[in-house]
Every structure is written in structure tokens, then in C-alpha cells.
Amino acid sequence: MSELLDSLLDISRLDLATLDPDIQPLELRRLLAQVVATHSQTALTKQLRVRVVPTTLWVASDARYLQRIISNFVANAI
User: Fold this and answer.
1) Helices 63-77 & 2-15, crossing angle to 10 degrees?
2) Which of 15, 41, 51, 55 has a 20 to 30 Å separation from 34 between CA atoms?
3) Rounded to whole angstroms, how far apart are CA atoms 43 and 64?
């Protein structure tokens, strides 16, 4: 729950332009592996599994925000 509140607070800061995203090249494989590691145990307790299709793609984004967005999608799906 606190992760959701933190995300909402960050979004409101972005809307107010008080928080600048740190855009960097990111390897999606690494970021997605972190999301899977975060949510795999919760998924297992619900008899689900989280898996990622391997990728070699990179994106330009703020790592923290992108990870939170994807993590929220996964948490909602679980």
C-alpha cells in the first residue's frame, strides 16, 4: 500500500514539475528481472507465476518510475 502512495505522490510531484525524471538508457531485461523478483513470491502464494519473455531491448526512461509503473501493473494483475 505504501508503494502505491509513494507512486501517487511522485506522480503529483511530476505534475507540479517539482520532480525531474532522470532519463537514462535502461536495459529492460534487468529491470523486468527485478520486478519478477519482487512479485514472484506473492504470485506463488496465489498459485500463479510471473515470467518474462527474454529481451535485448533498451529504453530511455527514469529507472525508478518505469520500474514502479511496471511493478504496479504486475501487482494489479496478481
Assistant:
1) 130
2) 15
3) 22
